Amino acid sequence: MSQTNQEISKKLFELIQKTEIVLRLYYNKNKWPSIFPTLAQLAELYRDTYQVAPNALHSYLSFYFDEFSPTTNLVVKKCILVCIMVEGHGYSAKIQQELLVACIASFICAKNENDKLQKGIALTEQGKKLWKVRYQLAVKVLEHGGSVNKQATRMLARLQPYCDTLRSKNATPLYDNTTLIVAIAQIIAFAIAKRGCKPNTLGLCIKRIYLTNTDEFVRVSLNKLIEQFGLLPVGASTNYDGNTAVILLKGEQHVLCTLEDNKLTRLIKTQKPYRYEFKQIITSDKQLLYKVWGHIELPSIQPNKSNFDDTFAVIDKLNKGSFGSFRAIEKTIAPFPYIEEALTQAAKLYNREAQKGANIRHSLTMVGLDTASLLCQRVLIEQVISQLRHPFAQDVWHKYQLISLILATLIKKAYGEEFESILSPISAVVAFMLKHHDIDIKRFTYTDEQLDDAKPYSLSRLFGFQSFNEHKLHTYFDAHFGDSPAHQAFQNSEQEKHNHLSEDANTFVAVKVLSMLWSSATFEPTAWQKSVLENQAIKFGWKNIDELHSALLALSLHNMIE
Fold first, then answer.
1. How far is the C-alpha of 83 from the C-alpha of 228, rounded, in Å?
2. What does the DSSP 8-state code read for residue 249?
């Protein structure tokens, strides 16, 4: 057995033991300040363990750890289900971390009460009161421990009504996709973690949630769960020569282990297909739970590859290069064969009949040499945006398209260099946001009053948070768009005071404010913002801002959220 496999066995034991320990911290008030950092460390351990030993963790959905508390069993399964769904969706490590912190935190203040309920013991009146406010109490404890990011506390605040809605056919809107993942995991975990649950409870529970709910994200998440568990149906039981056997590895050659009194007796390699079922196995056998995984070559999960850096290397060339021919541009974008379809679609804006280009060369000639590199740059960034996975990816893309329509209307559809030079920095900052602010993005807009009224309105507010990280944004723009006046103007529209803004920066302010007006029912522009809108409307040939709003109204813009 290699050192790596020995470490996996130790890591699995450490994972379960630390889960039990963390769930007890609430009962020692002196430990409260350490709860959030400890939760964060445990969440990271779950994430790392799932990457190197997904087989083992999949099996834990079937195993009931007899030496640990019912709540520990529940939380372990809940976290594993989240890991499976996040892997299926392809979300970042930071998003997974936030979801796992919320998973564990949901029981840190009610371990004793949940243990009693799982054992069928009635709660006292005081216990009932505590159980009712367990999530609110968990939020207070996290804040006491110095929770930097508010995503976990936000999920806890919505968790109970989301669980109630998923269990019924209520028409309550389910708009927070991160909370939905935690809620799905919690419902399934409660069903399969109960000691002595019936066979195939996992499949029946997934089926019940799927048929009860029509929410698209709920159904997609359940499909991701089924797909991942279908790839690694580890822990499922079968009959092998009259004995109960559990699958440990599925591949060209399966690895099974036979059980006697729910303890591992021997390992078997076979190519014979078997019929499996989800069946709970109550055990405290350390061989079965931890050590056996050191004897199997486990498939690790490779991190999701992002072409972010490769794409931006080409974007840099498009930004800094001076192209004297369409052929030179074609050569620069050659590493991205998928760009042809995107370019031919984008070129429709430049065609009076709204027909797409026949090929790359035709698309570039439709827009002209001066605009071609800007168009290619924007289309490449849009490809980056579409490939970065996020719980609110559909909403982000919808808002981006809304900005594009508002911009086109503001400048009276004068597609060309001006349109591309304004939209390109916006697409660039959306890509930046998905990579560097993924855990900050929310579905609703952020309409709280600004602390500094002398600064313009940040585009980040359209996507649910107060502002971008100024240092990271400056570094990103300087690295990839250092020679672009348009990107500099956008950055100024985020950070400079009102009286220092150029005309181009004010155009970005107008686009941002218009986007907020058409995305939020509660946003109210300031007197200065109204003045900027009026001036920019007149600059682009409108009589006044009311005429521009009438033109936007005619587009039948719709808000998916508020």
1. 10
2. E
H or E stretch at 81: helix 70-89
Q: Is 214 exposed, middle or buried (0-12, 13-18, 19+ CB in 10 A)?
A: exposed
Structure tokens at 200: 């195939």
d(CA 113, CA 130): 8
Lateral strand order in the sheet of 243-249: 237-240, 243-249, 254-260, 263-270
Dist. CA 259–CA 240, nearest whole Å: 10
* Residue listed under structure tokens 């065609």: 351
39: helix, coil or strand?
A: helix
| 371 within 8 A of 420, measured Cβ to Cβ | yes
Long-range CB contacts (< 8 A, 24+ apart) of 445-449?
445/516, 445/519, 445/520, 445/522, 445/523, 445/562, 447/516, 447/520, 447/522, 447/523
Q: Which residues contact 359 (CB under 8 A, 6 or more apart)?
A: 340, 344
Spatial contact of 88 and 224, defined as CB atoms under 8 Å apart: yes
Tell which residue, 387, 476, 395, has the closest CA to residue 432. 476
From first to last of its 562 residues, what are the pLDDT tens digits of the chain?
Answer: 344 667 889 999 999 999 999 999 999 988 888 888 899 999 999 999 999 999 999 999 999 999 999 999 999 999 999 999 999 999 999 999 999 999 999 999 999 999 999 999 999 999 999 999 999 999 888 887 665 556 788 899 899 999 999 998 666 788 899 999 999 999 999 999 999 889 889 999 999 999 998 889 999 999 999 998 888 889 999 988 888 999 998 888 889 999 999 999 999 998 888 888 889 999 999 999 999 998 888 777 776 666 677 787 787 777 756 677 888 888 888 877 778 888 888 877 777 666 777 888 888 888 887 788 888 888 888 888 888 899 999 899 999 999 999 999 999 877 788 888 899 999 999 999 999 999 999 988 998 876 666 677 899 999 999 999 999 999 999 988 888 899 999 999 998 888 889 999 999 999 999 999 999 988 999 999 999 999 999 999 999 999 999 999 988 776 655 4
| Crossing angle between the packed helical segments 32-52 and 70-89, to the nearest 10 degrees | 60
What's phi and psi for 336, nearest 5 deg? -120, 85
Altogether, the residues listed in the chain come to a count of 562
In angstroms, the CA 313 to CA 322 distance is 16
Look at phi and psi of residue 195 and say left if phi exceeds 0, alpha if psi is from -120 to 50, else beta. beta
CA distances from 291 to 9, 11, 70, 226 (A): 5, 10, 22, 27
CB 377 within 8 A of CB 319: yes
460 vs 557: CA distance, rounded Å:
20
